[in-house]
Write a structure and sequence with these properties.
Elements lengths: L2 E7 L2 E8 L9 E8 L2 H18 L8 H12 L5 H18 L9 H10 L4 H20 L26 H11 L5 H10 L3 H5 L6 E2 L4 E4 L2 E5 L2 E5 L8 E4 L2 H20 L22 H15 L7 H13 L4 H8 L4 H8 L6 H12 L10
Antiparallel strand pairs: 1-2, 2-3, 4-5, 5-8, 6-7
C-alpha cells in the first residue's frame, strides 16, 4: 500500500493514501487527509493510515474467477444435497464461460453485468444464476480473496413468474377418464389429490402409506442425476410432512398395491413394504420424468384439455382448494411450503376477494345505519 505527504503550509500537511480500486468501475481511488503539526507527526499519521488501509486489503494470491468457482464448489459439495450440487455445477460452468479467465480481484460489477447480458437463458434462470454467483462471491469475501462483493452492486435480474396453467374440475375429470387405463393413473391421481412434488411421489415406499390413519408420510425425495437416481431428504423441514388422504385416493392406492403384489407373485418374487410405490415393472426403476411428461401430453391431447407440466398437477391441487375456500395455512401444510407467505404469494390471484369479504363482514357486524341519519 502506497502513500505520500504534500506540504500545505509551515505546519500543515496533506496525506495521500492509495485505496482499493472501485469495485464497480475498477478505477483508482485515494484517501486525502489534512493534518497539522511537524513533518515527523505527519509521517507517523501517514504510516498509521497506510497500516489501516492495508488491513482492509492484505496481500493475496492471484486467482482467476474460474479457479475460485472450482474451489467454492469443492468446499460446498459436502454441505448441500446432490441435486443442489448438480445445479451449482451447471451454473458454475455457465459463469466460467461467460466471465472468462479474469482475475477474481479485478472482477467488477460491470464485468458481472456484461457476463449476465451474454447468458442466453430465460430471465428466471438468469436470476438463479446471479443468486448463486453472489453467494459464491460472499464466500470469496469471507475467505479474504476480495475486499468487497461486486455482485452486491449489481441489480438482481427481474424474473416474472411464468403463467400458471391449471385444470378446472371438468378438465381433471376428462383427463382422468382417459388416463384410467394407463399404467400411470395412480401416480397422476395421487399428484392431483395431494399436491405432492414429483420427486416426493417417486420417493414413496409402501410403508409410507398408512391405510389405517388414512394418510401418507413424505420423508424422502427422489432425484434424477446424470447416470444415476438417488434419494435425498425433502427440501425443507416443512416438506417432511404427513398428508391426509381421501377415501377414493386410498381405494386407488389399494388397487395399485394389489396389482403390484400379483405381479410379484407371477415373477416368483416376495413383495415387501419397503418397495417403491411407483416403479417400472420391466426395469424395477422409477419412471423417467420425461416419460411421465410425454404421458401427460398424450392424455391431455386425447382428453382435449390444456397441456400442462407435471408440476401443474400440484398447482391444480392448490388452486382447487383455495377456490373452494380452504384456509391458505392448510393448503400450505399440504404442499409442504416453509411459510404460508409462499402459498399466498404464489396463488394470490386465485384467492377469493378478501377485501370484498371484509366489507361484508364489517357491515354485518356493525349496527344498522338509520340512526346516523338522525332518526
Amino acid at each position: 500500500m502506497r502513500g505520500h505527504i504534500r506540504k500545505r503550509s509551515k505546519k500543515s500537511w496533506t496525506l495521500v493514501v492509495d485505496l482499493p480500486r472501485d469495485p464497480v468501475t475498477g478505477k483508482r481511488r485515494q484517501k486525502w487527509v489534512t493534518v497539522k503539526g511537524s513533518k515527523r507527526e505527519a509521517e507517523r499519521e501517514l504510516a498509521r493510515l497506510i497500516t489501516e488501509v492495508a488491513g482492509l486489503r492484505p496481500e493475496r494470491k492471484k486467482i482467476t474467477v474460474p479457479e475460485f468457482l472450482d474451489q467454492w464448489l469443492e468446499a460446498t459439495k459436502e454441505r448441500v444435497k446432490p441435486s443442489t450440487l448438480y445445479t451449482y455445477q451447471k451454473q458454475v460452468e455457465q459463469w466460467k464461460n461467460a466471465v472468462g479467465p479474469l482475475f477474481l480481484q479485478k472482477l467488477t460489477a460491470g464485468d458481472i453485468q456484461t457476463a449476465m447480458n451474454r447468458l442466453p437463458v430465460k430471465p428466471v434462470t438468469k436470476k438463479a444464476l446471479f443468486i448463486t454467483l453472489r453467494a459464491a462471491l460472499r464466500k470469496a469475501l469471507k475467505w479474504g480473496f476480495i475486499n468487497c462483493n461486486p455482485a452486491d452492486m449489481v441489480d438482481s435480474p427481474l424474473a416474472r413468474q411464468e403463467e400458471m396453467r391449471v385444470w378446472t374440475e371438468e378438465e381433471i375429470a376428462r383427463f382422468l377418464r382417459v388416463a384410467r387405463e394407463g399404467k400411470y393413473y395412480c401416480l397422476f391421481y395421487l399428484a392431483l389429490s395431494t399436491g405432492a412434488r414429483l420427486g416426493e411421489l417417486l420417493g414413496l415406499q409402501w410403508r409410507d402409506i398408512d391405510f389405517e390413519r388414512r394418510s401418507l408420510q413424505i420423508t424422502r425425495t427422489l432425484v434424477n442425476l446424470p447416470g444415476k437416481v438417488c434419494t435425498q431428504p425433502p427440501k425443507t423441514a416443512a416438506a417432511r410432512r404427513r398428508v391426509p388422504l381421501d377415501g377414493i385416493t386410498l381405494q386407488i392406492l389399494r388397487q395399485h398395491r394389489k396389482q403390484q403384489i400379483e405381479e410379484s407373485l407371477r415373477k416368483g418374487e416376495r413383495w415387501r413394504d419397503d418397495l417403491p410405490v411407483f416403479y417400472s415393472g420391466r426395469t424395477g426403476k422409477p419412471p423417467n420424468p420425461s416419460t411421465l411428461q410425454h404421458a401427460i401430453h398424450k392424455y391431455a391431447r386425447m382428453a382435449d384439455v390444456p397441456d400442462i407440466r407435471f408440476h401443474g398437477l400440484r398447482h391444480t391441487h392448490a388452486t382447487l382448494l383455495l377456490r373452494q375456500g380452504v384456509h391458505p395455512k392448510i393448503v400450505s401444510e399440504r404442499l409442504g411450503h416453509s411459510s404460508v407467505n409462499i402459498t399466498l404469494n404464489r396463488y394470490s390471484h386465485v384467492l377469493p376477494d378478501s377485501q370484498a369479504e371484509a366489507v361484508k363482514a364489517i357491515e354485518k357486524a356493525l349496527p344498522g345505519g338509520t340512526w346516523f341519519a338522525g332518526s
